[in-house]
Amino acid sequence: MFITSREKSIIDLIVKISGKHSAHSLAAFLNVSVRTIQRDLKAVEKILNQFDLQFKRTSNDGLIIDGKNEHIYKLIQHLSDVDPTDETPEERKLQLLIKLLHEGTFFKTQVLAKQLGVSITTLTGYLDDLANWLEKINITLTRKRGVGVELIAEEANKRKALAHYFLVHFHEELMESLYLLQKDNQLKGPVLGYFNPHYLLEIDNLVNKTINIGQTRLADSDYIGLIVHICITIQRSENNFVLQHADEIANESTKEYQLMKQLCEDLEKTLLIRINTSDIHFLMVILKGSKLQDTDAISYDSIMLGQIIKNVIQHVSSQLHMDLSKDFALFQGLLAHMEPSIFRLKQQMGLFNPLTGEIKTKYPILFMAVNNSLNKEFKDISFPDDEVAFIVLHFGSALLMNEEKANIHAVVVCPTGIGTSKMLASRIQKEIIEINSVEIKSIKDFETANLNEYDVIISTVRLPFTDFDYILVTPLLSDEDIARICSFLQSNLKQLTSRKQYFGLINRKDVVSRKEQSHLQDVLHEIKDVQISMEAILHNLRVYRKSNMGNHVKVLREMVVEAEQEQLVTDATKVLRQLQEREKKGGLGIPKTNMGLYHCRDESIKGLIFQVSHLDEPCIIKGMDGYEVPMKNLLLMLAPENLSLREQEILSLISTSLIENDVAMMIFSSSNEAMIRKKLEDLFLNYLQNNLIKE
């Protein structure tokens, strides 16, 4: 099949947004004339005829590809294996960007045009587009008569620009190439004309081995982003493009730095390439800005951010006249997303969101509500629309969660981030009542999944697999996507039900009974977790008055040793060491208070512990905002290594309540055990009434 990139784009657009695109809208979207689109449509129609498909028009001149679903699926699968006979404008701009970043400072326009095989007029348009885009990344692209094209930028910004362009325009191609490399496929030449395939594969292996393990997990988009940044760093260092300075030199004790240092040392041994300290610091900042832990592994000590997020949720709720303040999953999801998000914004590392336009159009009220709340609560940070859109997805998912369910199990494959996939899963369950449950998997996890467990496979991107059928949808699930899924279910009903015939051999009452029993057991287990957690906190509560002589470590040691004597802790030395290591990583003083919250989780801790020591003299410690805090009250929170979700909720409830208002701050810094106990009891009672009892 011979097909141009524009013809391929036309088919992709009409398949994904069927009936919405006309010749005029396609022309506007692809930046060409209507006459060009009409000429291309004739060529596309010949391609469709090869698959027994044809164009049809709606009453509004919208274009629809008409034919059997299986023929449409064959067309999509076939197009995924076909390389267009020409280059897209994005591919030519990428070549231009690589030349500008790798081959000097000044360029003659005529020479560039000849090297790219385009006219001077086309090159001028490309340079205009790149200049506007690069300006946002602090890179200046100038054109002077008699001099030519000049690019002025620091090396760090050049690396970010190149990585950003690859991730924005070639994300799917990168994912597919990486998948093929993992399967021992030999790729001809550099990936996308730039990346060394051997480097990509080695970096992928080491990122999985060093970083993407345990509780430190990366979302798919952040995962591929980190690999791209590392590969660009290595290749530019290899070509003697050196960073002028290192970022955050003082933060070498952080977990991110240690992980990146280990990774770079392994890469040096494997690839025999020198990676200097500045490169490690640069990549550490990228890792810190992209790190995404599982939501149930988020540290419960993020007091300041946790309180702000609670305020954001309450403010959004008040604007929408809908109470989301008790949705702990929403709170945890936002906490997981916004910690790296805020770091990115402070480092001026913008995050591209391809769904921003659709989200603003489809959810304008929710977008405005979230934007208003962020502006109100984060006075010193400006959230661009791309970041706001990601946060809107979390709220959208929360608003759509508890809907009617039925009989079919689906899986959503979505590499664009947890907010997007949760939103899509919620929309599917809301709009298609036949689907009972929706599981979310990344492309990486989907490789090893048992496909027999799923009745329908839905993906937001083209998948690099060919041995099964799947439905390609837009991440926001258009009306056409819904119709396509419903049509698939109806067309394959016999096949879908055949796998479930064993239900006929079982008494239906037994199935329902076991289901209800299972649900009841889950609820009882949660109630037990909550009861044990609350009783442990209240039973282990102690309020001391300590003579510290200006040394809070002495007080900390006394508190941990006393806990060991009461058999609440089995290894006081280990716990104390954990607490001191945690203090080295970042401030523990609560800003604008006289309190410090010292905490850790360890296998030697036998239950939840919350205790307070009132110091006779204040100790100056580093605060969570980086400024000094005169600590007069040392709060100690200890927990076992493994915690259930409900146990984490209880700890989060306490830590975020410490500064919820002036009264709460006064109580926890009062050194009055009766008042503190009463405050905890009120918190727990309110939690029970608004969570377990209502549920």
Give a quick precis of the structure.
Helices cover 56% and strands 11% of the residues. The protein is an alpha/beta fold and 695 residues long.
Polypeptide structure, described:
The structure is a single chain. The protein has 695 residues and is an alpha/beta fold. The chain folds into six domains: 5-80, Winged helix-like DNA-binding domain superfamily/Winged helix DNA-binding domain (Arc Repressor Mutant, subunit A, Orthogonal Bundle), CATH 1.10.10; 89-153, Orthogonal Bundle (Arc Repressor Mutant, subunit A); 159-292, no CATH class; 296-399, PTS-regulatory domain, PRD; 408-505, Response regulator (Rossmann fold, 3-Layer(aba) Sandwich), CATH 3.40.50; 523-690, Mannitol-specific EII, Chain A (3-Layer(aba) Sandwich), CATH 3.40.930.10. Helix content is 56%, strand content 11%. The strands form four sheets. Strands 7-6-8-9 form a four-stranded parallel β-sheet. The protein is globular, with a radius of gyration of 28 Å. The termini are far apart. The model is unreliable at 293-300, 401-406 and 500-518 (pLDDT under 50).
